[in-house]
Amino acid sequence: MKIDVVSTVPFEDQKPGTSGLRKKTRVFMQPGYLENFVQATFNAVGGARGKTLVVGGDGRYFNADAIQTIIKMAAANGATKVIVGAGGLLSTPAASHLIRLNKADGGLILSASHNPGGVDEDFGIKFNTANGGPAPEAITNAIFDQTLTLCEYSIADAANVDLSTIGRQQMGAMSIEIVDPVSDYQSLMESLFDFAKIRDLFASGFTMKFDAMHAVTGPYAKAILEDALNAPKGTVLNGVPKEDFDNGHPDPNPVWAKDLMDMMMSDEGPDFGAASDGDGDRNMIVGRNIYVTPSDSLAVLANNAHLAPGYKDGISGVARSMPTSGAGDRVAAKLGVECFETPTGWKFFGNLLDAGKVTICGEESAGTGSDHVREKDGLWAVLLWLNILAERKQSVAEVLKDHWQQFGRDYYSRHDYEALPIEAASSLIAKLRSFLPDLAGRTFGFEEVTRADEFSYLDPVDGSMSENQGIRVFFKSGGRAVFRLSGTGTEGATLRLYLEQFVSRDGNHSQDTQEALKQVRNAALELCELETLTGRTKPDVVT
Ligand code: G6P
Ligand code: ZN
């Protein structure tokens, strides 16, 4: 096998964000751009020599080309083996599972998650470590340092690999194993959930729609829901993965999964609705006439996990990202287990899961998961909900209402202001930061501030510190507003305003969410001077 050592010059913009490196697809298609990042990743982890790597992606435009490049670079860098999902497909949770199952040294996952795909849309790559989880900041920083000084990369001068045929191939001394993307993941799900009980649920006439959004979970959902659990054919919608997600935006929220939402918000709608994103790690859960916020979903799953065989002995703890509502905290308190508050980004859960401190984690950004892998897992959340519904023999609405009666309700919504000029967004945050010392005791509209700070996180496992993770303002009413800039966007800056209002057990649990949040929202907007600084009067997305 001939190896080319190619001279290159650094790209200055390869700093990984919340979830790996994400850019416009054309940026990745520039000569050397992907190659530099892959070589920098290998260099940052002590080289690829002798290592086994899992490689796969969500099937978006440029996925297959990128995988060919990565395989050739792994071979040239001396890797022993690469395990690749057939067709180049692997959902993010399935990739995490394959890394763990095969005791691989890590993996490269190609995806821009819930961002649209296509030559003019987004692409991304991230490195996962041997525990199956996204690389922690120490490694992503080391990768970034490498990208700034890189002067050459190595690539095998070899023919493209046949990605469609399951089985072994060879590239020089490196073996390439093309695997079915679904089967190992499906076995894992069968080990956690009571498939017979869920089968009975479907046999009793329970109806469901799962919107795969033309993204990677289509084949997983069909195999598990329709083939293994006997849900009627047609339960999975948009189940064929497409390079551009059929010109869609594969983000499972009420805005981008509107067709499913419309179907569910009707007395004749299915009993249960769900959707997942581009790479299958996010989920949306909907009942007939009721939307379950991701923060509530985390709380309900934590409180009921023991009903599924995989969690029958209970959970060791709960973790949530800081902007996620406090609903999960209340469940942890009742269960007598610890609740951890981490910065946004699944990578912060990895240490807690590895140390056995938590079993279930979740984020407001439609992510829930457990210690079965080291990524959030869309279909896992759907199956746990199904298992719970099958055991409790209640509707989604009944489960939620019971939950609020027991714990109180955290009304919750996120307002996104997208594609802001970076300077305007940064100065908004800088101004807020400068207000912080004097906020307590001041009143904005009807809301009095009790405390305000900028969130930082001391990892209790490895002692690392992450600062500037979002500004939190707590109000006397039990409300909270959080201001944070997104770390996953590819255009300008996105300001996320997270709004929360707690209403106690005996309060009114049937208000309209935006209505319940009105006072907190008005106070937050007055405080951050959004309109003056950005000219924006309305959010682009409300979840
Ligand atoms: C990805 C990450 C999540 C994160 C989300 C939003 O999905 O895996 O952990 O919560 O992005 O991040 P952002 O920085 O855009 O708010
Ligand atoms: Zn995703």
Automatic annotation (TrEMBL):
<feature type="domain" description="Alpha-D-phosphohexomutase alpha/beta/alpha">
    <location>
        <begin position="296"/>
        <end position="407"/>
    </location>
</feature>
<protein>
    <recommendedName>
        <fullName>phosphoglucomutase (alpha-D-glucose-1,6-bisphosphate-dependent)</fullName>
        <ecNumber>5.4.2.2</ecNumber>
    </recommendedName>
</protein>
<dbReference type="InterPro" id="IPR005844">
    <property type="entry name" value="A-D-PHexomutase_a/b/a-I"/>
</dbReference>
<feature type="domain" description="Alpha-D-phosphohexomutase alpha/beta/alpha">
    <location>
        <begin position="198"/>
        <end position="286"/>
    </location>
</feature>
<keyword id="KW-0460">Magnesium</keyword>
<dbReference type="InterPro" id="IPR016066">
    <property type="entry name" value="A-D-PHexomutase_CS"/>
</dbReference>
<comment type="similarity">
    <text>Belongs to the phosphohexose mutase family.</text>
</comment>
<feature type="domain" description="Alpha-D-phosphohexomutase alpha/beta/alpha">
    <location>
        <begin position="14"/>
        <end position="148"/>
    </location>
</feature>
<dbReference type="InterPro" id="IPR045244">
    <property type="entry name" value="PGM"/>
</dbReference>
<dbReference type="Pfam" id="PF02879">
    <property type="entry name" value="PGM_PMM_II"/>
</dbReference>
<keyword id="KW-0597">Phosphoprotein</keyword>
<dbReference type="Pfam" id="PF24947">
    <property type="entry name" value="PGM1_C_vert_fung"/>
</dbReference>
<keyword id="KW-0479">Metal-binding</keyword>
<dbReference type="Pfam" id="PF02878">
    <property type="entry name" value="PGM_PMM_I"/>
</dbReference>
<dbReference type="InterPro" id="IPR005846">
    <property type="entry name" value="A-D-PHexomutase_a/b/a-III"/>
</dbReference>
<dbReference type="GO" id="GO:0004614">
    <property type="term" value="F:phosphoglucomutase activity"/>
</dbReference>
<dbReference type="InterPro" id="IPR005841">
    <property type="entry name" value="Alpha-D-phosphohexomutase_SF"/>
</dbReference>
<dbReference type="Pfam" id="PF02880">
    <property type="entry name" value="PGM_PMM_III"/>
</dbReference>
<keyword id="KW-0413">Isomerase</keyword>
<dbReference type="InterPro" id="IPR005845">
    <property type="entry name" value="A-D-PHexomutase_a/b/a-II"/>
</dbReference>
<dbReference type="InterPro" id="IPR016055">
    <property type="entry name" value="A-D-PHexomutase_a/b/a-I/II/III"/>
</dbReference>
<dbReference type="InterPro" id="IPR036900">
    <property type="entry name" value="A-D-PHexomutase_C_sf"/>
</dbReference>
